[in-house]
Design goal:
single chain; 450 residues; mainly alpha; two-stranded antiparallel sheet; 2 domains; Growth Hormone, Chain: A
C-alpha cells in the first residue's frame, strides 16, 4: 500500500524544466492571444489598412504560423531546445515591441513576419520539452497540466488587454505582449537548462517529404479540407467578431472577453465529451462537432431576432447583469463553438495519427494543424470582403451622415454570419459523404484481410 501511494504521489512531481516550459508557455499564450484578438482592429484602425487588405495580410500570417512549426521543430532539433527558445522569444520581443513603435504599413508587415517566425518556433519546442521532461507514468498528467496552462494563458491575456486598449490605446497592447515575451526570454536564458533530445532527429528534408506524403494521402487531405470548414468558422472569433462587435456596439464593448467564452467552454466540457464519445469512431465524433458549427454561426446572426422578441436592447440575465442582444447571442454562438471543438480536436488528432506509417506518427502529427493553414487563409480573406460589404469601417463612410443614415450602412451586418452557416453546412454534408465512402471501403477490405 505504501509503495502504491508513493508511486501515485510521484506522478505529480516533475523536473524544474517542465515547470519552466509551462511558465514560458503561459506567458507566450497571454502575449499571443492578448494581441491577436485585436490584430485585425489594429491593422485597420491604427495602421490604416482596409478591411480587404487586412483580411489578406492576416490570412497569410495565420496560415504560415500554422504551416511552419513542423519545419521550425526540425530547426529546433539542430540548435537545441534552450537556444531555440532564446531565439524564439527574442524574435517575439522584437516583433511585438516594434509593432507598438512603428505604424507604417511596410514596417508593420516586416515585424509581423518576425512575430510569425518566432511564434512558429515556440509550439514544437515547448511541447517537445514537456514530452522530454515527463515519463510514461507522468506524461498524461503532464500534458493535461500543459493543456490547462495553454487555456489559462489565452484566457488571462484576453481578460487583461481591454483595460490597456480602452485606457491607454490599442497600440499599447503590443507592449504588453512584448513584456510577456521578455519575461519568458529571461526565463529561457537564466532558469532553463538545456534539455537533450532523445531518439531520431528529423531534418527539414524529412519534414518536407512527410508533407508530400500527406498531400498524396486521399483520406488525410480530404478530411483536412473538410475539417477546415469548421476552423473557418472558429477563426471568425479573431477575423470578424472583434470588428463586428466594436462597430455595432461602440468602443466600450469588450470583444476580448467574448472570445474568452471559447476556452472556458472547452475546459468545462472537453473531459466529459471525450469520455462519452470514446465508444464511437473518430469520424463520428468529428461529425457531431461539424453539425453543431452552423448553429453557432446562426446564433451570431440572430441578435436582431432576440431583440425583436425581447422588445428592448437591454436584456436582464438572471437579474445579475444587463446585456445587449448582440452580446448574448455572441456568447451563445462562441460557447457552441467551444462545445463543438471538444468533439473535433482530440479525435481529429487520433485519426491523423492512425493514418501515419509506423514510426512516423510524430512527423505526421506535426502537420495535424494543416487544416488551420487552409481555414485561416480562406477565412480571413473572406472576412475582409464581408466586413467591407456589410459592416464597413466607419472611416470609409461619407462625412456628415445622420444617425439614421449611419445605421442604415449596418442594417444587414448580420448577413455576414449566414455565409458561415453555409460553409458549416457544406462541410458537414461533405463529412457525411466522406464517412459513408470510407466506411464502405473499409468493409470491402475486411474479407481480404481475413
Amino acid at each position: 500500500m505504501t509503495t502504491n501511494t508513493t508511486t501515485e504521489t510521484m506522478t505529480w512531481r516533475f523536473p524544474k524544466e517542465f515547470w519552466m516550459a509551462n511558465f514560458m508557455e503561459l506567458l507566450e499564450r497571454a502575449a499571443y492571444y492578448g494581441f491577436f484578438i485585436l490584430l485585425t482592429v489594429y491593422l485597420t484602425d491604427i495602421v490604416g489598412f482596409s478591411d480587404k487588405e487586412t483580411g489578406v495580410i492576416v490570412g497569410i500570417f495565420y496560415a504560415l504560423l500554422y504551416f511552419l512549426p513542423p519545419f521550425s521543430g526540425a530547426l529546433g532539433d539542430k540548435i537545441g531546445f534552450k537556444n531555440g527558445l532564446i531565439l524564439a522569444f527574442s524574435l517575439l520581443c522584437i516583433g511585438y515591441f516594434f509593432l507598438g513603435v512603428f505604424h507604417t504599413k511596410l514596417m508593420v508587415i516586416l515585424f509581423l513576419g518576425v512575430v510569425m517566425v518566432g511564434g512558429s518556433l515556440i509550439k514544437p519546442l515547448i511541447t517537445a520539452t514537456v514530452a522530454k521532461t515527463t515519463t510514461e507514468a507522468t506524461r498524461a498528467r503532464g500534458f493535461s497540466l500543459f493543456y490547462w496552462v495553454v487555456n489559462f494563458g489565452a484566457f488571462s491575456g484576453k481578460t487583461f488587454v481591454p483595460y490597456i486598449r480602452q485606457g491607454m490605446g490599442l497600440e499599447y497592447v503590443n507592449f504588453f505582449s512584448a513584456g510577456m515575451a521578455f519575461i519568458a526570454l529571461l526565463t529561457a536564458i537564466i532558469l532553463f537548462r538545456q534539455v537533450e533530445r532523445t531518439g531520431e532527429k528529423k531534418s527539414i528534408a524529412d519534414t518536407g517529404r512527410a508533407l508530400i506524403r500527406i498531400i498524396k494521402a486521399p483520406r488525410l487531405i480530404a478530411l483536412t479540407l473538410i475539417v477546415a470548414g469548421f476552423w473557418t468558422i472558429q477563426g471568425q472569433m479573431y477575423a470578424t467578431m472583434p470588428k463586428y462587435v466594436l462597430r455595432l456596439l461602440g468602443p466600450g464593448a469588450k470583444p476580448e472577453w467574448l472570445a474568452n467564452v471559447n476556452p472556458l467552454a472547452v475546459v468545462i466540457f472537453v473531459v466529459f465529451v471525450t469520455q462519452f464519445m470514446k465508444r464511437y469512431k473518430a469520424v463520428t465524433s468529428i461529425l457531431v462537432g461539424m453539425l453543431l458549427m452552423p448553429l453557432s454561426a446562426l446564433c451570431m446572426a440572430w441578435s436582431g431576432v432576440l431583440e425583436g422578441v425581447a422588445g428592448t436592447t437591454d436584456i436582464s440575465v438572471f437579474g445579475v447583469m444587463v446585456l445587449h442582444p448582440l452580446t448574448i447571442m455572441m456568447i451563445l454562438g462562441i460557447a457552441i463553438q467551444g462545445f463543438a471543438e471538444c468533439f473535433i480536436s482530440p479525435r481529429f488528432l487520433e485519426y491523423f495519427s492512425l493514418q501515419a506509417p509506423k514510426g512516423q506518427e510524430g512527423l505526421y502529427l506535426g502537420f495535424s494543424h494543416l487544416h488551420s493553414f487552409f481555414s485561416n487563409l480562406a477565412g480571413f480573406i473572406l472576412s475582409g470582403f464581408l466586413l467591407d460589404a456589410y459592416c464597413p469601417d466607419p472611416k470609409t463612410l461619407p462625412v456628415g451622415l445622420s444617425e439614421v443614415e449611419r445605421a442604415a450602412h449596418y442594417a444587414h451586418a448580420h448577413y455576414i454570419w449566414y455565409y458561415f452557416v453555409g460553409i458549416g453546412l457544406s462541410a458537414a454534408i461533405a463529412l457525411v459523404i466522406f464517412r459513408y465512402i470510407t466506411l464502405k471501403n473499409d468493409k470491402k477490405r475486411e474479407p481480404a484481410a481475413a
